[in-house]
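Hi there, hope your week has been kind to you so far. Thanks so much in advance, here it is.
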Amino acid sequence: MKLHVLDGTYELFRAWFGAPPDAAPDGREVGATKGLIATTLALLRDPEVSHVAAAFDHVIESFRNDLYGGYKTGDGVPPGLMAQFPLAEEALAALGVRVWSMVEFEADDAMATAADRFGPEVEQVLLLSPDKDLTQCVVGSHVVTVDRRRQITLDAAGVREKFGVPPESIPDWLALVGDTADGIPGIPGWGAKTAAAVLSRYPHLEDIPADPARWEVAVRGAARLAENLAKARGEALLFRKLALLRTDVPIPDALDDLRWAGPTSAWDDLCDRLGLNDRTRAEPRRLLAGRSAG
């Protein structure tokens, strides 16, 4: 048994920029939501997808905005996309996918919590997102991240190969390098390769000696890097706190609640409101019938 956890926010953004605009019968723009339904149905066609959930940033802001004023906000998100978030959550719930709508926390926190809570109960947890934040959750080949668009799966070895550090050092790596998508600026002078070289020897910020003469790794400009880190150590620790995913999100579900059992009674009404064609309307029931027959 495997658990598949969708990054609903990413999937909706991907559909907004990748799917053509489309209007519902009432004139509303629903192209991204219809694109999300299509990619989720594609996932459900895989008979190995038995337990599935989707996490959404119901609002873009979270507790992290209270910690750091520069953290990402909903500013700049196209209004047409923002307007589809509630509809997208409703659509996946009608499709029978368990939906976690985050307000205080972020979708990534819900995904991290799911990996931590349900990991011992399943053969594998697949976090379906290319977000590098989530690579900190990777455990061997038991918990992996999957970039569905590029068809890239990262296990622990893959994380180390891509970033130069093990999963547990990813928050420290992000603190040093920064993450423009989340509004984390990083520490001046610390690039991806330099941070990887240092953290490969000293896995966490606290482990890095203040005196660069004690560094047991050869990096160019070590004195300047150490000086910059010393000047901004408080900021670096804050940035790591921002990058560290929470695993205590109050998700009420048990693993069995995540078993996909076909669309709910709200599915047909949703199809009518979105103007979905008969093939899309029928597909989830057909998929469920095929599983039952198998």
Remarks:
- The chain has a mean pLDDT of 95.
